[in-house]
Each structure stands twice: as C-alpha cells, then as structure tokens.
C-alpha cells in the first residue's frame, strides 16, 4: 500500500512538472527589456524562442517572427531543441507511468510494470534536465549581456517563462527520482518475502519429519507370531 501511494505522489509531481514545462515553450516572456537607468519608458521589448515583440505605451503589441531558423543565434536553436525534447520525453514518460503503476490494470506482471515505472522515471528525469539546461542557457545569455559594460544595445531581464521552466524541471526530476525510489522499495519487499517463505517451508518440512520419526519410535511393536516349527 505504501509503495502504491509513493507511485501516486510521483505521478502527480511528474505530470505537474510536465504541464509547466509544456506551457513554458509557447510562453511569450522569456526575456523583457530592462528599465534600469531609463527615466522615460515608451515601449517594452520582449521575446521568446519564436518571435520578438514590442508593446507601446497604449498597450498595442507588434510582433515579428524570426526571419530564418538557420540565421538564428546558436543558443536559441539549442534551447528550442532542448525544450522540444523535454516535452516529448515527458509525454512518453507519462504514458509509461500510467501503464507501469500498480493501481492500473494494464502492463502485465508486476515485474514488467516495475520496469515500465522505472523507465518512466528515467524519462521524466531526462525531461527535467533538458528543460533546466535550456532555461539556464537562455538566462546565462541574458545576464552576460546585462552585466557587460561594453554591450550598448537594448538590455533584457529574465522573463516569467524561465522561472516556470525551472519550477517544472525540478518537479519532473523529483517525481522521476520518486518513481525510482518506489521501485527499489518494491524489489526489497519482494526479496524479503521470498526469503521468509523459503525459510518457513524448510522449517515446516523439518518439523513434520521430526514428528514422524518420534511417532515411529514411540509406537508399540506388535508381538511376534511364531509358527509351529519355530524351534525346530
């Protein structure tokens, strides 16, 4: 029962993290223009992995998609690939977790379900690491430009999407590790059960053998019958 509850907690953590990771990919505010050192702000610049936009003082936004994928900066291409990989890994991890959990009726034997649950945890851990790496690379580029005294272009700050991505990646990693922890608990319980069962079988068999031997020794021997010519 405790192992099943651990798997349910792990599933809730991983699904929540995967939803946050998936919502990070299309979120607009990956970076927002900084107002540090600016007295009058007439427009706000912000962008994500797919487009760059500007919002004027009246609240009207004008967006422009990146013109060419091959002409993009390398860090944006890497972040795109890592985020897409994180979403795909989380999806396959959710499917494997539904099949491998003990509270579901599919997946075959308990050994096969345990293997699927461990594989699901491994997928979620990889998904969290991919998302965390992508957000960290993007944040590193923003902070490098911000603190560079020779960078004269528009400076940006960390957007809300990065914090959502970090939170989702942490949940995915924690849930994946919980899946692996529940698997180790189940294997230990199964091995202990089999050991006790073998010991009880041997003890019972020995007790039956000793009881049979004691009964055979204590039983009275029947008198011997001698024939007519016994003393001949």
Can you give a write-up of this model?
α1 runs antiparallel to α2 (74-100), α1 packs parallel to α3 (110-146) and α3 runs antiparallel to α4 (160-218). The chain has 232 residues and is α+β, with helices and mostly antiparallel strands. The radius of gyration is 34 Å and the shape is elongated. The chain is built from four helices and five strands, in the order αββββααβα. It has a five-stranded antiparallel beta sheet with strand order 4-3-2-1-5. The chain has helices at 2-24, 74-100, 110-146, 160-218, and strands spanning 31-33, 43-47, 51-56, 61-65, 156-158.
Order of helices and strands: HEEEEHHEH
Output mean pLDDT: 79
In which range does the helix fraction lie?
A: 55-70%
Q: Structural class from helices and strands? A: alpha+beta
Assign an overall shape. Answer: elongated
Residue windows where pLDDT falls under 50 for at least 5 positions: 188-204
Strand order of the largest sheet: 4-3-2-1-5
| Helical segment count | 4
Which radius of gyration do the C-alpha atoms yield? 34 Å
Strand content: 5-15%
Profile the largest sheet.
5 strands, antiparallel
Count of strand segments: 5
Distance between the terminal alpha carbons, to the nearest Å?
A: 79 Å
